[in-house]
Amino acid sequence: MSRKIPDKWQSSVKAMKAVQVAFDMDEKIQLAIRKQALEAGLSPSDQIRDILGLPVNKRPKRPRLTVSLAPSDYEVLAKKYGLAVDEQLEIKKRLMDDLIQHITM
């Protein structure tokens, strides 16, 4: 029995069928690929696709950094910034300020 995929999800069907492949290789090789990706303005995944001769999505991506924060992390950060734990947007703003200050020092 197959279910119909909602129209709004149709564009994601190809992505849902993709299989992620992980590579366990020497750290020097991984670092070199990451550096090449950074210099080319690509994600490491796109750099690997390029190296392998696979199509790479050439649309410019919004560059961003990510970090995973657990509820306990928000507690620590709220205390650090003198904020309530539920003020997550303000905590994010303060984190960005800290990162910018760290780089521009």
Layout of secondary structure:
Elements lengths: L12 H5 L9 H14 L3 H8 L19 H11 L6 H17 L1
Helix pairs in contact: 2-3
Q: Estimate the helix proportion, in percent.
A: 40-55%
Summarize the helix and strand pattern as letters. Answer: HHHHH
Runs in which pLDDT lies below 50 for 5 or more consecutive residues are none
Number of alpha- plus pi-helical segments: 5
Find the structural class using helix and strand composition. mainly alpha
Taking the sheet with the most strands, its summary is: none
Q: Mean pLDDT, rounded to whole units? A: 86
End-to-end CA span? 61 Å
Shape: extended
Count of distinct strands = 0
Provide the gyration radius in Å: 20 Å
Estimate the strand proportion: under 5%
Folded structure, characterized:
The protein is mainly α and 105 residues long. It starts with 12 loop residues before the first helix and ends with a helix. The mean pLDDT is 86. The chain has 5 helices and no strands.
Quick rundown:
The protein has 105 residues and is an all-alpha fold. Helix content is 52%, strand content 0%. It contains five helices and no strands.
